[in-house]
Structure formats: C-alpha cells, structure tokens
Amino acid sequence: MADWPDRLRSFFVPGSTTGMAKPKKRFICTECGSVSTRWQGQCGDCQQWNTLVEDAPDTKFAAKHDLSSGGRALTFESLDAPTKPLVRRSTGIAEFDRALGGGLVPGAAILMGGEPGIGKSTLLLQAAAKIAQGGRSAVYVSGEEATGQVRMRAARLGLSKAPLKLAAATSVRDILTTLGQDDPPELLIIDSIQTMHSDMIEGAPGTVSQVRASAFELIRYAKERGTALVLVGHVTKDGNIAGPRVLEHMVDTVMSFEGERSHQYRILRCLKNRFGAVDEIGVFAMEGHGLDEVGNPSSLFLSGREEPIAGAAVFPALEGTRPVLVEIQALIVRLQSGATPRRAVVGWDSGRLAMLLAVLESRCGLSFSTAEVYLNVAGGYRLADPAADLAVAAALISALADKPLAANAVWFGEVALSGEIRPVAHGNVRQKESAKLGFKRAMGPADGWQDVAGLRYTDVGSVASLVDRVMASA
Ligand code: TYD
Ligand code: MG
Questions:
Q1: Is the dihedral of CA 136, 142, 146, 151 positive or negative?
Q2: Among the CATH numbers 3.90.190.20, 3.20.170.30, 3.30.230.10, 1.10.630.10, which is that of 312-471?
Q3: What is the pLDDT of residues 24-40, one digit of tens each?
C-alpha cells in the first residue's frame, strides 16, 4: 500500500479488511427499513429523525455445528415435471386484473402501497364488493376505520347490498380465529398492515417487527388456505412502503397506487409479481361515485389541445403493452442576473434532463446555462420510458426557439450521448395508437418502425437535424 498513488490510498478505509468484532445489536429504520448496527438520532439513509428501533439481534451460528447430518433429505425435481396451470380469478375490475397480470391467484399475498387518500380503500372495497356480488366470498378487515365509516363509503359507491363480510379489527389472532371457523374466503383484505397487531411478539402496531410478524401470520394463513390476501401499506413521501420494506420480500406481488391528489386519474402499477409481468398498468379516474375504469388512457392526458404552443410535444409512451399518449411541456426562462438557474422536472427523471441539456449544448451549441428550465409531463403523469428523450428534446428546442411543433405530430426515440436518435422498442405499437387518436406524423429513429396507415413517418436522424427541423418549422 505504501507505493499506492495518493488518489487510491484515499479510498482505503483503515481497518476495513481486518476482522472486527461482530455487532450484537441491530437497529431498523421504521421509515425506510434500512439496517444499521448502532443507534442514531437520524437515519443515515432517509434522514428521518427518531425512526431507528432496536430489532432482534443477528443470531450467531457457531462454526462447530455440523449441518451435514440430522436434517430431512430433500427430493429433487426436474424442471419439466407436470405442474397444475396457474388459476387466476377476476377481481371484477378489468383494470385491476390487468395490473395483476390477469387476476388474483389463490394463496397469493399482495402488498398494495400508496399515499394516504389516494384511493386504496376505495379500490379494494369496490373489488371485494364485486367479488361478493358474484357469489364468491370476500372479507374486508379495516384497522383504520370503524365499520360505520366503511358502510358510508359503500353507500356512496352504491355497493351497500354486496354480501361482503366486513369487520373492524386490529388483532391478527382475532382475525385468524374468526376466519378459521369458516371456509376460507377467496379474498381477504387487510386495511392496513400497519394497524395490525400480533401477540406473538412485543411491540406497538406499526413497528417493523410487528408489521413483519403480523404479515407473516396472515401470509401463512393465505398460503395454507388458498386465500388471496391483500395487505394495504402506507407509503412515505419518497415512495417507499413505509417501515415494512421487509414486507416486499415476503409477499408475491407488490403494487403501488399512484396519482396526484389534485388530478382525478389514478394508476395502479405492479412493482414485483411472482405470478406475471410487472409492466402492465391499470388506469382509473376518481369520481364522486368511486373509481371508474379508464379503458383509453390517452384521451385523459391529451385533452384540450387545440392551439399549437411552443414547448409542447406529444410522446406515445408505452406502459407494458399498452400505449399512452402524453404531452410533454417545456418552459425556458432566460435569466438576466448571474444567479444559478433552476431546473425543475415533474413526471420525468431530472438526471435524464441534465443529460439531454448537456447533449443539446455540446452537440448543437444550444446554451441553457443562463436559462431556467422547467419540464412537466401533463396531467401529473410519471414517465419511465427512455423513448421519451426525443419528445423532451423537441419540446426543449421548441421552447427555446419559441416555435410551436406541428400539432399533429408525435415524437419518440432515445437520445444517445453522441446526439444520435436511437431505436426504441415497439415503435409500431406507438404509431398505431397515435394514428388511432388522429395524429398524422410520427418523428423517430432511423429504424425500428413500420408503416402505419394514416401516419407519415420521418426519420429525425440526430439532435442536430432535430434543431434544424424545429427552427425551420413555421
Ligand atoms: P381512500 O380510498 O380512503 O384512500 P386511501 O385508502 O388510499 O387512504 O380515498 C379517499 C379519497 O378519495 C378521499 O379524498 C375522497 C375520495 N373519494 C372520491 O372522490 N370519491 C369516492 O367515491 C370516494 C369513496 C372517495
Ligand atoms: Mg384507506
């Protein structure tokens, strides 16, 4: 190490390679679930205060235990052995089924996360009532609201007559004892897991160990009896299912119910699914009478486009197999003073915006360094599709030049650091949806697309030719 260059030596942490004594205690953050070996007032990961709680210490296994004898012998199986096909049962809500990858699987445990007030209880009450109305059994256990409150919501949703079994309870033992007296229901909803309490271990409801123990008991019941279980979980500001991140490993499916409370639409996403794909979404609109399914989401995000405005570009996004057209809006404000310009992004990755600005700056000579840049995905929609690069670049250039883009055009493609427009997946699905919604032109990468009736395709080439194209437009 003595002859290491200074730069390398500075990365070397003294003592990091020598054997240190194993910590006996460990602490878990109830906000983000991160584990640390010593107690601190502030969590090192999520920066929340007073959230670290002591957890059961790591059990030490003595090396002298011989694990090669005394166990039960396993029977190995082959991969092609016959298996029963997966049964999926409809929730009665097509958008919910779609997000689940086709419906509820008996015995599956689903964690449904979402911010308070986003509509989790409403969605699940609607699903449970639909199942009950179809003559199947559904149990809804509320730990947050009294039965009267749930009944009022059901009345508002017009579901009061559904033969759903409703209870207000927080004791896992009471719930499981009650369920054990009868045939297992097809669907069991626990709203929410943070209010549940298991007497198997100490601790107040909502603590990491309680949430984990309660979930464990409920999941075991679901697996043994073939009941589909939905656990509602609260979500923190940064999108983590609060405290019980540990739960994500225990359940089969993790779903997140998202949206802006000020906008009426909601998106149900699957973040993990042991029984299907994770890229399908369900789209809903929160109305006075509950959640309505939105079969054609593009119409939701594009409404009110008549006059072409500078800085707006339409992007045919793909959510799973479903195309959704969204409008990307950019605003550029030139700064007079030498203040540090702001970059604010809603609905897209700010790191990606910084990358695009850098590409536009170095490949096309456009300068954004003295301008504030605001980027917004209309309708409060959140984009994860990398194909949005070209539409964002077009919106930025259009805003900078104060020249509107053609109102009947859509833009898609990934922008490489070299400034080239790179092909993206499912170009023809994007184009078909655009044509269906009345768009006449599609602008994109050189390959990876097909002719679509009613839509003229233009190969944009690179960001430099994109700039020429926008500047030349009337
Ligand atoms: P809720 O399902 O209680 O949210 P969560 O369980 O995720 O906390 O939804 C509450 C919000 O939904 C509340 O702000 C009112 C609104 N809402 C409607 O707009 N229409 C309705 O029919 C219902 C039941 C709720
Ligand atoms: Mg609720």
A1: negative
A2: 3.30.230.10
A3: 677 887 777 778 888 88
